[in-house]
Amino acid sequence: MRKIQNMKRRTKSLLVLLLTLVAVTTLLPMAYMLISSFRTMTEYIYSPLGFPSRFRLDNFISIASGYPLLRNFSNSLILSLVSLGLSLLVSVPAAYAFAHIPTRWGSTLYVATISLMMVPIMVTLIPRYIIFSKIGILDSRLSLYLSYTAGALPYTVFLLTVGFKAVPKELVESAKIDGAGYAQVVFNVIIPMGRATIITACILNFVSFWNELVQAMMFTSNEKLKTITVLVSTMGGRYVSNMPLILTGLLIASIPMIVVYVFFQRYIVEGITMGASK
Amino acid sequence: MEPSATRVISPTHGPSGRRRLRHDNLTAFLSVLPMIAFILAITVYPTLNALFHSFTKWDGIHVEFIGLDNYAQIAKDPRFWQLLLNTLIYVSTVPVQILIALFIMVLLYEKLPGWRFFRSLFYLPNVLSPIIIGLIFRQAFMWEGPINAFFKANHLNWLVLDWLSKGPTAMGVILIAIIWNNFGYGVVLFLAGATMIDPCVFEAALLDGANWFQKTFRIFLPLLGRVIAFFSVTTIIWIFTGLFGLIFAITKGGPGYDTTTLEYMIYLNAFKAGGKMGYACALAVYLFVITFGISRISMLVTDRSDR
């Protein structure tokens, strides 16, 4: 009996060891980014692997003085937040209708809407580019607000409809009988009761807006509109040889998402598992 | 329509029944109207526009109808088949990802100390921007980068390679980046799926003396079928349509077209190679048909297995 337990303990510790190994592999690139950001170019050329000889913030200072980082960050933030607001504004009423107002065409339209998730961005990218340039909104934030929102709609409507369906029908009905109008039902019943789903949708969308690259790259060329991901994508070209500097830039660019993740991961996990269970 | 007809149809509710339905119809319609407008203008119309232009020679301004020439030209081009092959090689990481995620899931399922932390950690790469992940990997595998330095320091000189300048090794770097980027998604999904399995199944298996290996492959693998299928399909579609950032950062599709995917080729044709936009649209239609096909087939398969 003891022998079996010993064996079990041994396999268990072996498994934990393997788990730790995978964890280290996952952490390694990020840890490397962090450590290298405190090293100088000379240190790096001498040996790309290694710890900084002393703690210094030189790279952070040169990045901050070489790039209008604050502007890039605020561009990403404005873009993400406005697109987020716009996508909620459009999808909350739609999801409410799909979940709680019975019509003959509702379910067909719902299926058609969420099936648009299947359209790859590369299919719409070229026509969008041409259309935006024709109506004169290329190289403006508006082009990105519109295409981000449109891109996010199918999945957002899907998440919210599932979430709003969980709000009891009786609650909606009794609010209506008490004389609540459309806006009152949405703001006093649907939104408070569906809060968790709304937050989930917001976090998922925020992450994808913030990380988006190809549209931001194609639709805007003005320096003043550059997002943080577009900035990062050009860094390699400018500092070809100064690797610690590039790694510092990558580190700075990844901090916001790490922070969002640390605080809101519950919602992210919920959001992605919701997709699988349906 | 007429009041008299209403009375006949719903005698119990009186005229208000029909009116309520019509009122509901209008409210619902107004609720979805902004969404419909958005989707029609910014997703559906551009999609149809791309379809139309796939039959033309188009540089963004001049349009010349050429029928199926683009499609024929693409199908005849050996490069097109190479792009598909490249993509399929990237897809070959899916079983690897499933195995890694399954393995980790089984460990975390036992609620080892710190399992929550591990779960969070493994998913973290999924929220990072692909361009950031890609540039870290590019930097790591450069000639004078840390990977080569590591091999040199450990006297593994045969592994000191110019990774990104040769097709197979450059592809290897992208394969590793894909796995690193995405396996945590599998961990989270499988873990959520596993918690829905009746614990009695495990108690029974433990009583029968099932070991870790049997537990993984005889219990989890079959019971998680649906979740694993979902993971596979979403990951395959992501590989077909969402690798732009990683490839752009790591190899820019090179050397030559050795690591280019169909998706990346659309970008190259439309915006880099002198604006062959009609041709790019035809490529996009091919991509759309392929991803649509994958999701259709997967739906049929999962529907059947449910029955």
- If you average the pLDDT of chain B, what whole number results? 85
Query: Strand order within the widest sheet of chain B?
Result: 1-2
- Give the % helix of chain A: over 70%
Q: How many DSSP helices of chain A?
A: 13
The topology string of helices and strands of chain A comes to HHHHHHHHHHHHH
Number of strands of chain B: 2
| Assembly context of the chains | heterodimer
Q: What general form of chain A does the structure show? A: globular
Number of domains of chain B: 2
CATH superfamily annotation of the largest domain in chain B:
MetI-like
Order of helices and strands of chain B: HHEEHHHHHHHHHHHHH
Would you give the CATH topology of the largest domain in chain B? MetI-like fold
Biggest sheet statistics of chain B: 2 strands, antiparallel
CATH class categorisation of the largest domain in chain B: Mainly Alpha
**Average pLDDT value of chain A?**
87
How large is the count of helical segments of chain B?
Answer: 15
Using only C-alpha atoms, the radius of gyration of chain A works out to 24 Å
How far do the termini of chain A sit from each other?
45 Å
Give the uncertain stretches of chain B in residue-range form.
Answer: 1-15
Distance between the termini of chain B: 43 Å
CATH architecture name of the largest domain in chain A: Orthogonal Bundle
What does this structure look like?
- The two termini of chain A are 45 Å apart.
- In chain A, α4 runs antiparallel to α10 (195-211), α10 runs antiparallel to α13 and α12 runs antiparallel to α13.
- Chain A folds into two domains: 2-59, no CATH class; 69-277, MetI-like fold (Orthogonal Bundle).
- Chain A has helices spanning 2-36, 41-46, 58-66, 69-100, 106-115, 121-134, 141-165, 169-177, 182-193, 195-211, 214-219, 228-238, 243-277.
- Helices cover 79% and strands 0% of the residues of chain A.
- By secondary structure, chain A is an all-alpha fold.
- Chain B is mainly α.
- Chain B has two domains: 3-53, no CATH class; 92-260, MetI-like fold.
- Chain B contains 15 helices and two strands.
- Chain B has helices at residues 3-9, 15-53, 69-76, 78-91, 93-109, 115-123, 130-140, 146-153, 167-194, 199-207, 212-223, 225-241, 244-250, 262-272, 277-306, and strands spanning 56-58, 63-65.
- In chain B, strands 1-2 form a two-stranded antiparallel sheet.
- In chain B, a hairpin with a 4-residue loop joins β1 (56-58) and β2.
- The longest helix of chain B has 39 residues, at 15-53.
- Chain B is flat.
- Mean pLDDT of chain B is 85; it is low at 1-15.
- The chains are: A mainly alpha (278), B mainly alpha (307).
- The interface between A and B is large, with 86 and 93 residues.
